[in-house]
Amino acid sequence: MKGASFAWRRTEHAQIVHGRILCRMEFRDVLKRRRIVRAYAGEPVPRETIEWIVGTIRRAPSAGFSQGQRFVVVTEEANRRAVADAVGEEFYVEQGFDPWISGAAAIVVVCTREQDYHERYQQPDKLGTEGTEIVWPVPYWHVDAGKAAMLVILAAIDEGLATGVFGFPDERLGAVRDLLGLPDDVTPVEGVTIGHSGNDTVSDRRSSRGTRPRKPLEELVHWEHW
User: Fold this and answer.
1) Hey, what CATH topology would domain 31-211 get?
2) What's the rounded Cα separation, in Å, for the pair 160 and 155?
3) How confident is the model over 11-21, as pLDDT tens digits?
4) pTM of the prediction?
């Protein structure tokens, strides 16, 4: 997508009032609808909509604006099935879930290129006090991949769609890399499914959200100090 597409896509489904773009869904409503969905209706999603959703990668924050996030977007049915087979979709099917990975309209494989961060932090304005690259306290290339994934999830929900998330078991990682043709310096982090929600009552009964309560807010958020 070219840069101008960003503004055009949003105004197509929004109103401009006093110079402000008002989207069709309030952010609080988007958050309320945020949940993992493991059943899809099979209805296709227009390519333009998927392009808008994955285009949010250019708005994702990254350390030093390293921009190390990468997406592989899988929409063809045969390719979706191949990804699902590679990551072990049968594990879910055996538990009574729909084949939700292959059944999604699109799969976004969220990846990261660690070297982008090292290259950025070896530039003069990012060098440490001793003139060398900083010691990374945490792997920000994975942190930032998560940020990009969340933008995909929220953008999809804003489009009236549902999303799910799956990981890549270590023993299956090689097969996923080969299938997608990933370069050696690009690492897959997680997969995000996108589509129109189907009947997902199995998740309500058997997934973690159905069997585990939400932790109280005071256990998760601390003010001023722990």
Assistant:
1) NADH Oxidase (3.40.109)
2) 9
3) 445 544 445 44
4) 0.86
